[in-house]
């Protein structure tokens, strides 16, 4: 069943159910009231009639006037007064047979009784006159309220129920359409989005906090994540094919030229050396990619050991400066904690060494070997390492791609690199349950921030 129909059905069921319940309640109470009220009228008329006929002349006159002025005569009203003998036998009374015997018996034994036979209502009372004689007063009349008003009222209820049903149907239809429409719009827009136009988003209403707006925002967030990941995939393929293709084209070109005619041995040696150089580059790039793939796993197989961060940074400084003597690393010890055990992290030392040296070498490389500052500090739960350079920086719009394998920013033409260092460093840091954040400004420099949890005390 369509959601819209379901909503209509539920709304109608609730509204109609409530209206019927409400109508039954009113109908029941009003007809009860009509019964009680009519018997009360009969009682008043029975008593006043008895008083008027049986009491002193003066009182009777007053009562007659009262009765005429204030009490309307009831439809088909019939009233009879029968004297009761002291043994209260009533069966022999002349004309009593027209009344229901059970009703008369109850009047005589209980003093009063009521009875109704479809639309005719009966009231009976034993009246004791001022001269201590008992009379059986029986009154009957047609209850016009039951015959006319109640049936009119019943018809009115049925008609208003019918009208209410139509109004509810209309409201439910409009209401459900109002609820469903935004969902239909979302479905329509979502159907328009494919890999070709992943940049498209659903229109958001920022001031609205209902479920539909939340759904729209959640969907847009998901599209953002999908788009970034899709872009990364696309980037990886184009970066990788470019990076691997360049040395391969060079190797093929060199070999082609060398083989095009017979040459001097020196030429072959030179060509082979160039080919070897390119092949080594290719090998480095593929093994870096292999390492990257390996660190992409959860690292459960590797062995974690306690490692002091200050010690690690000193070792990395040694390595970085050995790789290129022009590299300068300045370590800032000012934030060193008094308790050196706080500097211990759980780490796989060779991998952490690789990650930190990649970050520091980048700092040296992209600042043309200006000094790179490395500082570290601790909080209650984390060790923070900052690597800061004053180099070329990363263009703002390219920052989001720096973790894509083989990605190289547009301002790195004069610097050699493979585009593997940062994704590799991030994978290694993540293996250590840490985070890597890079902030940068073109022409001013770059700061890489590594946050790693303090090692467990065990
Ligand atoms: P690469 O081998 O190109 O340095 P990385 O993966 O280490 O590869 O870095 C990816 C890209 O991020 C670099 O090509 C460069 O554009 C940018 N980058 C990383 N670190 C820095 C830095 N310290 N200064 C400027 N750009 C940087």
From TrEMBL:
User: Known CDD domains for this protein?
Assistant: HAMP, HisKA
Q: In what way does this protein cross or attach to the membrane?
A: Multi-pass membrane protein
The residue ranges of the HAMP domain are 177-231
Looking at its record, which EC class is this enzyme? transferase
EC number(s) recorded for this UniProt protein: 2.7.13.3
Reaction catalysis annotation: ATP + protein L-histidine = ADP + protein N-phospho-L-histidine
Q: Which residues form the Histidine kinase domain?
A: 239-456
Superkingdom is Bacteria
Which molecular-function annotations from GO does this UniProt entry contain? ATP binding; phosphorelay sensor kinase activity
Q: Which SUPFAM superfamilies match?
A: ATPase domain of HSP90 chaperone/DNA topoisomerase II/histidine kinase (SSF55874), HAMP domain-like (SSF158472), Homodimeric domain of signal transducing histidine kinase (SSF47384)
Q: Could you list this entry's UniProt keywords, alphabetically sorted.
A: ATP-binding, Cell membrane, Kinase, Membrane, Nucleotide-binding, Phosphoprotein, Transferase, Transmembrane, Transmembrane helix, Two-component regulatory system
Q: What is this protein called?
A: histidine kinase
């Amino acid at each position: 069943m369509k959601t819209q129909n379901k909503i209509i059905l539920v709304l109608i069921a609730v509204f109609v159910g409530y209206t019927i319940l409400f109508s039954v309640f009113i109908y029941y109470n009003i007809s009860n009231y009509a019964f009680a009220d009519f018997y009360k009228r009969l009682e008043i008329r029975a008593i006043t009639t008895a008083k008027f006929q049986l009491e002193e002349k003066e009182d009777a006159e007053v009562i007659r006037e009262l009765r005429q002025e204030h009490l309307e005569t009831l439809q088909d009203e019939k009233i009879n007064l029968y004297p009761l003998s002291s043994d209260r036998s009533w069966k022999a009374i002349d004309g009593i047979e027209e009344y229901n015997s059970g009703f008369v018996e109850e009047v005589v034994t209980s003093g009063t009784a009521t009875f109704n036979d479809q639309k005719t209502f009966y009231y009976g009372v034993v009246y004791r006159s001022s001269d201590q004689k008992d009379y059986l007063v029986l009154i009957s009349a047609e209850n016009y309220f039951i015959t006319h008003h109640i049936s009119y009222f019943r018809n009115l209820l049925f008609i208003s129920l019918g009208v209410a049903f139509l109004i509810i149907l209309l409201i439910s239809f409009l209401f459900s359409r109002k609820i469903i429409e935004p969902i239909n719009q979302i479905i329509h827009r979502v159907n328009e989005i494919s890999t070709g136009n992943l940049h498209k988003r659903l229109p958001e209403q920022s001031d609205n906090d209902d479920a539909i707006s939340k759904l729209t925002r959640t969907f847009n967030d998901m599209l953002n994540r999908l788009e970034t990941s899709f872009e990364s995939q696309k980037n990886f393929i184009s970066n990788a094919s470019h990076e691997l293709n360049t040395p391969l084209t060079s190797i093929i070109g060199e070999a082609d030229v060398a083989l095009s005619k017979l040459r001097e041995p020196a030429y072959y040696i030179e060509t082979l050396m160039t080919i070897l150089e390119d092949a080594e580059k290719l090998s480095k790039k593929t093994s870096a990619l292999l390492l990257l793939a390996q660190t992409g796993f959860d690292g459960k197989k590797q062995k974690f050991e306690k490692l002091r961060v200050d010690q690690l940074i000193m070792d990395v400084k040694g390595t970085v400066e050995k790789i290129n003597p022009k590299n300068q690393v300045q370590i800032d010890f000012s934030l060193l904690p008094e308790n050196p055990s706080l500097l211990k992290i759980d780490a796989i030392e060779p991998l952490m060494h690789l990650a930190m040296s990649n970050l520091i070498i980048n700092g040296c490389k992209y600042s043309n070997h200006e000094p790179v500052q490395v500082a570290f500090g601790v909080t209650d739960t984390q060790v923070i390492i900052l690597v800061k350079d004053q180099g070329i920086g990363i263009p703002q719009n390219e920052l989001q791609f720096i973790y894509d394998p083989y990605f190289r920013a547009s301002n790195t033409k004069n610097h050699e690199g493979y585009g593997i260092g940062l994704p590799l460093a991030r994978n290694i840091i993540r293996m250590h349950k840490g985070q890597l954040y890079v902030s940068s400004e073109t022409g001013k420099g770059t700061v890489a921030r590594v946050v790693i949890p303090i090692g467990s005390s065990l």
